[in-house]
Write a structure and sequence with these properties.
The complex is a heterodimer. By secondary structure, chain A is of the alpha/beta class. Chain A is built from 13 helices and eleven strands. Chain A has helices at residues 32-44, 67-83, 88-91, 106-115, 129-135, 145-158, 176-186, 203-222, 293-300, 304-307, 310-313, 325-331, 345-365; strands at residues 2-7, 54-59, 92-98, 119-123, 163-168, 190-195, 230-231, 256-259, 264-266, 285-286, 290-291. In chain A, strand 10 and strand 11 form a beta hairpin. The longest helix of chain A is centred in the C-terminal third of the chain and has 21 residues, at 345-365. The mean pLDDT of chain A is 94. Chain B is an alpha/beta fold. Chain B has helices at residues 29-41, 56-59, 111-118, 137-159, 167-174, 200-205, 213-219, 231-234, 245-252, 260-282, 335-357, 364-391, and strands spanning 3-7, 45-49, 68-72, 80-85, 96-103, 122-129, 165-166, 187-190, 195-197, 211-212, 327-332, 402-405, 410-414. Chain B has a ten-stranded mixed sheet with strand order 7-6-5-4-3-2-1-8-9-10. In chain B, helix 5 crosses helix 10 (260-282) and helix 11 (335-357) packs antiparallel against helix 12 (364-391). In chain B, 34% of the residues are buried. The chains are: A alpha/beta, B alpha/beta. The interface between A and B is large, with 57 and 47 residues.
Chain lengths: 366, 415
């Protein structure tokens, strides 16, 4: 599946403490004309985009600051793919990631009603109010949980199969169990969670992480939540050595295309100017000239071995250990994407150990 | 490190992929002398670019005792002069061991004649496709045709026992492993600004200096290898390609990733070399050189694995979801059947969404097209169910209300 992401605006109505976008601003909303040119480019160049299906994503900043634009783009894609009998007509899905503040607005609800069958929405929630509000705040520092509470309930009713992504930072490390259980109780059945890749996690962080995961596992097993609720922190496929011939990149950068507000294409939002602190942006084309194959090539050539240090290649816990390509690029001293920051190493090992215990107990329960 | 290249002027003619600086920037005497000192201190060979711009003999007495290679120009005192030839100019005035033929896109059709004429006075001709990163697919196809012509001439020369070399067609016969140009590892370039660069290309553009003369004189060249990954080249056997990190950098922003054009021309050259070798092997000639096998790709990036999908192995993956209200589970579809109904369902959803996007003010033609498409899709859906109900014995044929869970491929029917 191809993923095409529209960054509709670089503005956000929240000011989360861990936000990876250091240069948010209200100056660059996308125009419909730019979006239209991007859609035309993707639809008219079938040979360059042979994928049989596509997910069109809308992000920001906060994408719901541009609700009308979302609607205009969806409508345009449906119309153009239908008129040209493009295979993407029936295989297009649309995905919005929002902070939830404008979710209940009349305008967005009209959009949901119209496109519910082909639309998916994810609302970012970090956990119970005290956890959520410690990071997800308004620009004045006030917590946001109360302002989105009604939206969360509505969202779960409207999209019961949706997932939410929990980002675990140092300040929320001791609340993982509470956070995931809170989301389960709200009705979110699949919780995706990961520790932030930007941190240099210490062994004591890993120890706390493992304890939290054990606590969460205990709850899931004792309360027999496992048939109905899942959390991505527990996975059977992690923690095995990876044979050298299995040399895939972990991150999907380069396989997706991000369209910036000015029509520039990027391999991921993390390579846009408003995402990067100290290195140059890495565009891969634009709506006028299309994809620059040469600028895209490094991202397609990213293999595990080409960017990993020896200790990762021979690690017995290797599978499932991830990284953020944009963060790697930001931290590489020579401005290359062929570098792997290994700050999550101990956290991954802790996750593997907790995961193994969980499945071992689950097998007994089953 | 073995060699120090002294770039006497950044506007000196290029012998490689880079274009010289447009502004003259001659090397001052003190920089030149410090460069000589650095070379002497570290037992480095000296190559000089831009002798025509700066007469280094005037700078330093010891320069007369140097054994140096002069690139880009003929120098009467050089151990070896490697001239760069403009294919549109007259033939080489004197015999040379090596000469460089720098080509641009507009010379694709005429370079073979230039080379053949050069080969009468020059043992080894090094072709540099100076603007290859700007070539289109059509240019590369045209280049492939010229390689056939060059291949035929080379075969005639070898059949007549003439020992000439054309890098792009003869090198790969003998090279059986990567053959990097060595920039940043075997050699560095000292520019007039007193900085050391990975190669003259970086020096001409003042891109990413690796250190200053002062640092190098104090600490010597680093023994650490340049930390560059070459994932595309690592799976490629076009060993004659010199893996130009400058060209890589200006086209892909990564030292270790070649442009698609670079790979495409290298593979055209590989194929022509393969055919030349096959020709001689049939006559039991050149058997000391191993045969080159035929390949189907022209870009080794195709050999690299695609990104993995993120771990989706959640612990409920094998579970059958709960039946919708008023339904019961009857069985699972095979993948292809599930795919078919998934397509039909997705089309239905898209058509209804499209219909909802078109209020009454939309054109009647568009409304009709959409409603016809909805009807047609509904018929397809009914036909699908009829065929499934017949084929899967666990599906009651008379049931009209059914539901498929696409993730688990589970089928539920109304109670």
């Amino acid at each position: 599946m191809k993923i095409v992401t529209f960054v509709l605006t670089e503005h956000c109505n929240f000011d989360c403490t861990y936000c990876y976008l250091p240069h948010k601003n209200a100056q660059h909303p996308m125009s419909f004309d730019i979006a239209r040119k991007a859609v035309d480019y993707f639809i008219e160049n079938k040979q360059e985009f042979p994928e049989t299906s596509v997910q069109w994503e809308f992000i920001g900043g906060e994408p719901l600051l541009e609700i009308q634009l979302i609607e205009d783009i969806i409508k345009y894609i449906l119309k153009q793919t239908f008129k040209s009998s493009h295979p993407w007509f029936e295989s297009s899905t649309f995905f919005v990631t929002t902070n939830g503040l404008l979710y209940s607005s009349e305008k967005f609800q009209r959009l949901v009603e119209r496109y519910r069958e082909i639309l998916d929405v994810s609302v970012s929630i970090d956990g119970p109010p005290h956890v959520h509000d410690s990071n997800r705040v308004f620009p004045n520092g006030q917590g946001t949980y109360d302002s989105i509470r009604a939206s969360i309930e509505l969202w779960i009713r409207q999209f019961p199969d949706s997932t939410t992504k929990v980002t675990i930072g140092k300040s929320t490390l001791g609340n993982i169990c509470d956070s995931v259980l809170h989301l389960f109780h709200l009705g979110v059945r699949k919780v995706i969670a990961n520790v932030v890749y930007e941190e240099d996690w210490s062994p004591s962080d890993a120890c706390l992480f493992e304890m939290e995961l054990d606590k969460l596992a205990d709850h899931i097993l004792r309360q027999e939540m496992w048939p109905h609720f899942t959390c991505s922190l527990f996975s059977k496929s992690i923690g095995q050595p990876i044979p050298p011939e299995d040399d895939q990149n972990w991150c999907g950068t380069g396989r997706m295309i991000v369209v910036g507000p000015d029509g520039t294409f990027y391999p991921c939002i993390r390579f846009m100017p408003f995402s990067l602190k100290s290195v140059h942006a890495r565009p891969i084309g634009n709506v006028e000239i299309g994809i620059n194959k040469n600028l895209l090539r490094p991202f397609l050539a990213l293999t595990r071995s080409a960017q990993s240090p020896e200790k990762c290649m021979t690690c017995d816990y290797a599978s499932g250990c991830g990284w953020c390509q944009g963060n790697n690029y930001e931290l590489s001293e020579s401005g290359t994407i062929f570098f792997r920051h290994t700050g999550v190493c101990e956290m991954h090992k802790a996750r593997v150990r907790a995961s193994r215990r969980f499945f071992s107990h689950l097998d007994c329960v089953k | 490190m073995r060699t120090l290249i002294l770039m006497l002027d950044t506007s000196a003619d290029s012998f490689c992929y880079y274009e010289p600086s447009k502004n003259a920037d001659p090397m001052e005497q003190d920089v030149f002398e410090a460069g000589l000192q650095l070379a002497k201190q570290n037992h480095l060979d000296i190559h000089v670019i831009g002798c025509q711009h700066v007469d280094c003999y005037q700078y330093h007495e010891s320069a007369r005792d140097l054994s140096f290679i002069c690139i880009g120009h003929h120098h009467p005192h050089a151990r070896l002069s490697v001239p760069v030839v403009n294919p549109l100019a007259s033939p080489l005035p004197r015999k040379h061991e090596v000469a460089i033929l720098r080509l641009y896109r507009e010379q694709i059709d005429s370079w073979v004649e230039s080379w053949w004429s050069m080969s009468q006075t020059c043992t080894r001709c090094v072709v540099v496709l100076a603007d290859v990163h700007l070539w289109s697919s059509e240019d590369i196809e045209a280049y492939a045709i010229t390689l056939e012509k060059a291949g035929a001439l080379l075969k005639s020369a070898y059949s007549a026992d003439k020992s000439i070399q054309l890098n792009i067609l003869s090198d790969l016969m003998a090279i059986t492993q990567a053959n990097d140009c060595g920039a940043g590892i075997d050699h560095l370039t000292l520019a007039p600004d007193g900085q050391l660069y990975l190669c003259p290309g970086f020096a001409a553009k003042k891109l990413s200096p690796v250190g200053s003369l002062e640092q190098f004189l104090a600490y010597g060249p680093s023994s650490e290898r340049l930390p560059v990954s070459f994932p595309v080249c690592d799976v490629c056997d076009c060993f004659h390609c010199r893996r130009c990190i400058y060209l890589n950098y200006i086209t892909t922003l990564e030292l270790g990733i070649p442009s698609w054009q670079q790979c495409a021309v290298a593979h055209q050259e590989r194929e022509q070399t393969r055919l030349i070798l096959n020709h001689f092997h049939a006559d039991r000639k050149f058997i000391e050189y191993p045969a080159i096998h035929e390949i189907e790709y022209s870009d080794p990036i195709e050999l690299l694995p695609a990104a993995s999908s993120s771990e989706a192995d959640l612990y409920d993956a094998d579970n059958i979801p709960e039946a919708p209200p008023g339904h019961r589970f009857v069985g699972r579809l095979i993948k292809s059947d599930c795919h078919s109904i998934h397509q039909i369902t997705r089309r239905s959803r898209a058509l209804h969404a499209l219909s909802a996007s078109y209020p009454a003010d939309a054109s009647i033609t568009m409304h009709k097209r959409i409603s016809d498409a909805i009807k047609e899709n509904l018929e397809t859906k009914n036909q699908w169910w009829a065929s499934i109900a017949k084929r899967y014995t666990w599906v009651p044929c008379n049931v009209q209300t059914w539901h498929v869970d696409f993730d688990s491929r589970a089928v539920f029917v109304a109670l």
